[in-house]
Amino acid sequence: MLNLDLIQHCANILGEILDFHGPADMKLSNYYREHGELGQKDRGEIAECIYGVIRRLRFLKKINEDDSNFKKLVIAWLIKIEGRSIRELEHGLSKDEIEWAKSLKSRDTENYTWPEKLSLPDWLWDLLVEQYGLDEAIDLGRSFLEPAKLDIRINTIKISREELIELLAKEIVDIEVMAYSPSGIRIPRGTSLSKNPLFVEGKIEVQDESSQILSFTVDAKRGMMVADFCAGAGGKSLAIGAIMKNTGRIYAYDISEKRIINLGKRLKKSGLSNLFAQKIKNEKDAKLKKLHGKFDRVLADVPCSGTGTFRRNPDLKWKNSIKDLDELNIKQLAILEEAKKLVKKEGRLIYSTCSLLKRENESIVESFLDSNKNFRVISVDEILIKNQIPLSTGNFLKLTPHHQKTDGFFAAVLERIE
Questions:
Q1: Which domain does 326 fall in, by range?
Q2: Which of 102, 327, 339, 356 could cross-link to 300 by cystine, CB 3.0-4.6 Å?
Q3: What pLDDT is recorded for position 418?
Q4: 208-256 pLDDT per residue, tens
Q5: What number of other Cβ atoms are within 10 A of residue 117's Cβ?
Q6: Residue 104, pLDDT score
Q7: By three-state DSSP, how is residue 118 classified?
C-alpha cells in the first residue's frame, strides 16, 4: 500500500512520463536506477500506481480539474479508483488538499461522456463505435482498464509445459494454463523473473498469448525457409523456431541494430540453431533481393497503433492521432508490398498487427489483394484446427482482450498461387 513518500515518487515520475516522449517503462526503469533506495516492493507499488493513473488519465484529469498537479492525479486515483479512505492519506496532505480530496468523494461523474469515463481519445472512441457498435466498444474500453497478467511461453526445445509448471509451482501459487496456446501459461503480474533460473537458462520467455497463437498461425513445418520481416525483439521468431523443432531456417530481419543485438542474446540461451538475425537498412535492402521467391513463409508483423496492447502499454492511448493512423496505413501497405517478393509459389505471406482497427487490418488486406491477384486468403480457422488450437475467428485471426483475454491481435494468411 502506497505511503506518502511513495506518493511523491509517483508524482515525480508522472511529471516525466506524461510528456509522452519515449516509452513509459523505460522512464520508470531510469527513475529506479537513479533512486537505488527504492526496494523491490516499493518499485512494484509505484509501477502499479503509475500505470493505474495512465490507464485512467482522461477520467482523472476531468475529475481533478487540474491536470498540472501530478500529486493530485495520484490521490484521485487512490480515492476514486482504488477506494482508499481520506483518513489513510490526510496526515500527509495540506488543509487545502484534504478539502479537495473530500470533494472528490461526492463528485458526480454520471454525465461524463463514454470516452471520458473509459479514458480514451475521442478520435479512437469514434472509430471503435463505428466498427464494433456502442455496446461492444464500451466492453472493449472497459477491458483496456484492466491490467493484464504475465504471459509466459515455454521453450519446448528445452522443457515441457508439465515439467515447467511443476518447477514453477514451488514458488508461484497462481499458475493458469493458457486456453489456446499449447506452449503457454499465465502467472500474476508483477512476478519478477529476471533472476529466475528458468528464465536465465532460456526455458521460458515473456510473450502474450496472442503472439504465441500467431506463431502457430504461421504454420511453419520442419525444414521450411521462414522470414520474420519485422522481427522487433524476436519473440515470434524464437517461438516459430521451437515449433519447427530446430529444423529449417528462420531469418529474422529488423532495421534496429539494438533489437537485433538483443535478439542475439535471447537466441544464445534458447537452444535454437535454425535462427539467423540480420539488420537491414529498410524493407528495400539490397541483401533481400537475392532471396526473392525463396521463402515458404513470410511473416510481416507491421508497425501499428498498438490499440490491442493498451492493457500493457496504456501510454500508447495518448501517443497517436488520426493523422498518425493515416501515415501508418501507408507504411503498412508498403511493407506488405515488399514482403510479398520473398514468398515462393504456394508459399504464404502472413500479415499481422496488434491493432483492433479495421483500417489497419482488413482494409490493408483488401487493398493488397486488389492489386495482387496472385495471392488468395487461406482460412485461419483451418490452420488453427490443424494445430489443435481450440479457437475459431473466421478467415482472419481476430483476438480481443474482452473475448479471448489476450492482447488484441489480427492476422491474415495469404497464399501465393502463381
A1: 210-416
A2: 339
A3: 86
A4: 999 999 999 999 999 999 999 999 989 999 999 999 999 999 999 999 9
A5: 19
A6: 87
A7: coil
For 147-170, how does the pLDDT look when each residue is reduced to its tens digit (9 = 90+)?
999 999 999 999 999 999 999 998
Q: Is residue 176 part of a domain?
A: no
For residue 411, count CB atoms less than 10 angstroms from its CB and return exposed for 0-12, middle for 13-18, buried for 19 or more. buried
Exposure string of 163-193, with b = 16+ CB inside 10 Å and e = fewer, is ebeeebeeebeeeeebebbbbbbbbebebeb
Alpha carbons 21 and 12: distance in angstroms, whole number: 16
Tens of pLDDT, residues 106-125: 888 889 999 999 999 999 99
176, 137 contact by CB (below 8 A): no
Q: List the one residue out of 372, 367, 365 whose CA is nearest residue 417.
A: 372
Only one residue has cell 492519506, namely 89
CATH number of the domain where residue 398 is located: 3.40.50.150
Write the Ramachandran bin of 253: left for phi over 0, alpha for psi from -120 to 50, otherwise beta.
beta
Tell me the whole-structure pTM to 2 decimals: 0.94
Same domain, 229 and 102: no
Which one, of 58, 53, 56, lies nearest residue 74 by Cα?
A: 53
83: phi > 0 → left, psi -120 to 50 → alpha, else beta; which? left
Residue 386 belongs to some domain of the structure: yes
| Interatomic CA distance for residues 285 and 50, integer angstroms | 40
Q: Do the beta carbons of residue 417 and residue 346 sit within 8 Å?
A: yes
